[in-house]
Amino acid sequence: MAFTAKTLDIISSYSIDEQLHIYKKARKLKEAFDNNDEKTLDLFRSNDKNIGIYEVFLEDSTRTKESFRNAIEFHRIQEKIFDVQSSSFNKKESYADTFNMLTGYHNKIFIVRSKLEGVCTWLARNGENYANRNNLPVPLFINAGDGKHEHPTQELLDQFTLLEANKRDRWHIHIALIGDLLHGRTIHSKIDGLRIYKKVMIDLIAPTLLELPQKYRDKMIEYWYELRFFNSIDEYLTQQSIAPSRYFTRLQIERMGEQILQQETRLRYAITFRKDHLDKIDQNNTKFYHPLPRHKIYPEIPSFLDNTPLNGWENQSRNGMLVRIILLGIMTEVPYIINDFDGETVIEPTYKESRIQEIIPDNSTPKQYSSGVNPIQNGIVIDHIYKWTDIALIKKQMTKIVSILWLYSKWGERISNSSTGENKGIIFRPDFVLDRLQIKKLAALAPWCTLNEINNSSVSKKLKLSMPPKLYDFELLSCKNPDCISHNSHEEHVISEFVKTHDTLFECIYCGFQHQYAEVWDD
Ligand code: NCD
Hints:
Elements lengths: L15 H19 L3 H6 L8 E6 L5 H13 L2 E4 L13 H10 L2 E8 L4 H15 L6 E7 L5 H14 L6 E7 L6 H9 L5 E7 L8 H9 L3 E5 L2 H4 L8 E4 L9 H4 L2 H8 L15 E3 L23 H19 L3 H4 L17 E4 L19 E10 L2 H14 L8 E5 L5 E8 L5 H10 L4 E6 L2 E8 L4 E3 L24 E6 L2 E4 L5 E3 L7
Parallel strand pairs: 1-2, 1-3, 3-4, 5-6, 5-8, 6-7, 8-9
Antiparallel strand pairs: 10-15, 11-13, 11-14, 12-13, 14-15, 16-17, 17-18, 18-19
Helix pairs in contact: 1-6, 1-12, 3-12, 4-5, 6-7, 6-12
Bound molecules: N-carbamoyl-L-aspartate.
């Protein structure tokens, strides 16, 4: 089975087998470069003059942009650099319109860096629709870093480098991640990237203000990684078990708020390696890595270390071009790179519809629902709408149910209290019925409610609804991460969509930001 070309928006868009295939091919390519083996190098080249590759960098870059540029040149493909400064982005053109236009000119691959998170996930979805509408090949997107979210191609080169150092042993890795773990997208991609190892031990070294967000920690616990936490390099070096691989990241000043910036000096001190640390590490069995750039005035890895065996970051950055050549080879379907893939690919999860359970109504002692004044003869009663303590929140959600399902009526709603402090809402609607689509929407709006259909004054059908695995197709849904491509403030007209990750936790499909169920709804 050949490796199928596909968008790389997050590292786990590619399965573990696919990632390992990239590392295997990159190793072969490196050997060919080292031996000046032109014949083998040629096997890796695309040479397809008809494929257009665009680099669209809306944030600064040296290594990622230039290594891609060199990789494109290696393949002898047309390279196009999008001029962001003089583009219609300045005239408030949307991402979707801009990239659709470039797709329309028969370009196939887009390498995109932006401060907006989830941008490639959105562009891939949008681009597929555009291509189908216009009978064009579906464009592919490579995320070259999106805000503080992910940096999957950096992850590919990091894992390739770590595997080299580990002599390709995937049994166990012990690595320290140091620096701005809060904003560092190269760190965030590591959580999934490190899954190529059977046993993973991670030491997280960061002051509290820069600590790794909870959602990544939860994920690592789910993956059974062993975690340890330290506030500074000083604290780390007071104990014995020091990781042989140490991955430094810089302070992402451009993404920091005032509160963090005020403490810049203290934060830098905590994550910077100093001369007096040297005698506490085994220099011959430790390697330092860094996605680079390092700050020329305050480098986390000072330049006095350049000429020591600790220097792993130079080889790491050279590896960048290699894995990017392989990635572009996959996307342009170079037979030598894709044909001998032998493994599993990512299986897209299928989401079942929300469960609707029919309960046999107990008519032995028939329950008479009343709308407050008159008994209901025919109609519906939506009962058990939430069991929340916050009455205002329940009211807000009930207003949404009425407006979205068009249940406008002079008849009432009620909120009843219970001794436990939990409240629930009830909506009575004589002479109304709900069709299947409305019932599905009701499940999303009021999971766990019961829907009673009343016929001739008795309950003829009782349905118990449950939380759907996906929330979508409602205008009143929106991601609350201000950096997400789908956030309302960016006016990109991205329809929000969420998938359930735990009981009441929903993740934005674009940026991965986690929300409690009630948070996804707008007023
Ligand atoms: C990183 C990036 O831009 O995310 N650098 C890189 O791509 N080599 C890290 C950084 O800027 O700190």
